[in-house]
Amino acid sequence: MVPKSQAIVGLEIGHMAVRAVQTDRAANKVENYVEVAISAADFNRSKPKESYQQAIDSAIYQLDLGDPETYRLGVAFSDVNAGVGNGPDMTNWLTQQVEKLDVSFVYVGEPEVSFSPDGVVNDVLALFRLSGVAVSRMELSPVAAARVLPNQTTATLLLGSGVGWQVDLREGRVFSAYASDAVDRKQLLKMVVDGTELTPLTKLRDIDVPPSLLAEHRIPISLLCPAAGVAKGIANREAENLLYGLKIEAASEIQRREARKSTTGQVQAVPESVAIASQTVPTKTTMFQPMTTGEHKQIIAQEAGTTKVSPTTTAKPTVASSLPNPVKPQVSVADTGVVKQPKSVARSLTPVQIGGMVAIVLLLVVLAVLLVR
Known about the structure:
Strand content: 15-25%
Structural class: alpha+beta
Strand order of the largest sheet: 13-12-9-10-11-5-7-6-14
Radius of gyration: 36 Å
Oligomer: single chain
Low-confidence stretches: 265-348
Number of strands: 18
CATH architecture of the largest domain: 2-Layer Sandwich
CATH class of the largest domain: Alpha Beta
C-alpha cells in the first residue's frame, strides 16, 4: 500500500465497469489495480447512477486508501455528446450544439478542445460526493489514454470506455475524438494506421506497470490506459481538466436561473395589491412569480374567491415591492370609482355646524360674566 500522503488514484468509468489504479505521488508506478464489474442482473435500469455509485464505493474500498483527504483522485469518463475538436471555429460550433440540444456544455484546452455536457460532469461529481471523495481532475477517457501511449504516435485510436471512441491521434496528441456506433463500448484499446493494427502495447509511457500486477489480474496493459492516464494528468498538472473548463449555457438553464433569482427572497416583499395591465388584482395576493420562458408570462396565485390573471399578459406588472420598504399602491378613481381617504385627514364642517358652535361659545361667555357679578 502506498503511503496515504503520496497516493494518486486514477479511476475510469467504463461500460458496466469501474477500473481504478493507485500510483505513487508522481504517478511513475502503478501500485494497485481494482476492477468492479456491474452485472446485468445487478444493474438498476431505473436508477443507473446508483449502480455506478455502488461500484465506485467498492473500488475505493478495495484500494484501502484510508482518509479521502490524504490522496488525490482523477476521473476518466465518457458521453455520447462529449468529444474533442480542433480549429478556430470550435467555440462557435459548440455554441450551435448548445442551441441545438438545449444543453449547457463545458470545454477546455487549446488548440485541441475537450468538451462535455455540463450535466454529465455534474452527475459524475455527484457520484463521488456520495462516496465522500473529492475529485481533483476530470477528463475524457481518450484524452487520458493518449497521455500514456508511446510518444509521437500518429494513428486512429479505437477505444471502448463508456462509449465507443474513434480518435484521431497525431504525434501523441488527440486531434479529434467522437463517439462512434462502429466501435464497441467494450473495445480494448487498438491503434490502426492505414487499416493495419499496430502491435499491441507492452508498456505505458512514463509510468511503470509491474508484470506481476498484470498477471495477477489477468489483464492486458492497454486496459489501464484511461485510469493510468488521468493519474498521470494529476501528477503533471496537465491542462485538459474539465473541472476548470469554460461554460456555454443553454437558454433553458439561463431561464431557470433567472426564475430562481426572481423568486428568491421576494415573497415577503409582495404588497397587498398588484396592478397589472390597468386592472386591479384583488387584495391578499400570496405569491407573484414571473415565468422566464422568453415571453412575459405571469402567474398569480391567490386565495379563495379571487380570479387568476391570464398568463399571456404581455404588460410588465407594476409592483410596489421594488422599493426597499414596500408601500401599498394607490388605487385611482378610474380603477374603482371610489377614493378612500386616509384616517389622518379631518372631515370638513358645514356652515350650520359652524354657526351652532359659535352660539355655544357666546352663551358660555355670557354665563361666565354673570357668575363674576
